[in-house]
Amino acid sequence: MARNKGDFRQTQKKKKDGKLVRIDDGGGASMDGICDDLLLEILLRLSDQRLAIQCSVVCKRWRMLIWSPQFVGAFKGKRPTTLVMQVGECMRIMLCGRKYCRPTDNVVYQKQLSSFTSYLNFIPEDGLMNIKACFNDLLLVERFRDERRKLYICNPFTRQWFLLPNLNLNPVSYYGEKFGLSCEEVPDSGNKLLFKYRVSIVYDHIKVANFRWKTRKWSRSYIGEGLSPLDGTDNLVSLNGNFYCIMTCSKTKTIIVVVFDPGRNKFVGRIELPKTDRFPPYVSTPPLDLSYPKFSLGVSEGRLRLAMVRPANPEKEEEEEQNYMWKVWENNNGSWSLVYNRACFPTWQDKPQIIYPDKIWFHPENGEVMFSISEIFQRVLCHNMREGTVEEILEILKRYDIVNFRGRSENQITSIQVTLSATGLPPFPFHLTRLIPPTPAPN
């Protein structure tokens, strides 16, 4: 049935939550005399991605332009990165400038959300939710209900989701899992943006579950003899279609970076860690003391990076008297080059920043910026490695940050785990727009 000019349609499934939008083909028709190049320049001046989505339903021509690779690449390049910080059941969403990441000076948009559901309420069912991995504007979300787990690939901006098949893992295997999410454009797909999605999970220290988009099924394999993920490190790092993970090798008693090809479902290479002073020559079980370095692997500005934080004076036992060295390397064709080598950061709020970080993250698009968190310090900090400055971007110890965190009481704040999804969320949503059914179309 054809729509007449001035008809209305509802944009949401629930009537009480929906909005009535007037359908008027005159808007698109009035620009028929404008060439595609000029119209593309006009659309590139839209202020945010949600407006772009709304404009894509004006007419067929606008939709083809807005979802074209030329528009997506240009629009994405002009927008800042979105950082999603999860603290228990709460998140903070920030759009920070590319050059700096200072909430007080350069934040375009900042909003504190009371719960996960207010940001990911389009995902069906109820239950606890956790971000397990992210890639560009995609999130891999874990949802628990009645001790049953479901995994979703979702796009918060287009409000689309895809439910992964049940993996049927023993809940005991959930501890220590490493997740990886990647998305690749299908070559020779013409004017359409077609993608294939991959998810890999390292579990039980020696096993890998790999979701193949072509078959929509999980396949399983083993990491390899003598290899095991290093405790305390982050998830799998996605770069150029491969996953990277810091592991220990029981044969050589060394720590290495292992390369996993999800397309072939096997490990295809290893990268030795850079040589540096006071570096552990071998490892069997990581000692539970401050003399053991803290490692982090990530991608910044499209390159694989490794960070190490270690005590400058391991012989000192008191943490309050300890200074720490930050070293950052960049990998190029298997070889490491030192990018930053800094001692303790300067005084912050009348206190030297000497707390040993529990986790470290890279800014996806600004190689000068890193993030850290300390359970003792109870804050997420932003470090400018070039200038040697540090700023607070999130305080953990607040009632709304720790309530309902997997049933833990407020007296157990020292055991809280924080997920900082700072590995990249460019704000233009395009990856999930081409998913085949049963994924719903964007609103």
From TrEMBL:
Residues 34-71 form the F-box domain. Coiled coil: none annotated. Residues 137-337 form the KIB1-4 beta-propeller domain. Pfam families: Beta-prop_KIB1-4 (PF03478), F-box (PF00646). It comes from the Eukaryota. InterPro entries: F-box-like_dom_sf, F-box_dom, KIB1-4_b-propeller, SCF_F-box_component. PANTHER family: BNACNNG10540D PROTEIN. This is F-box domain-containing protein. It comes from Cannabis sativa.
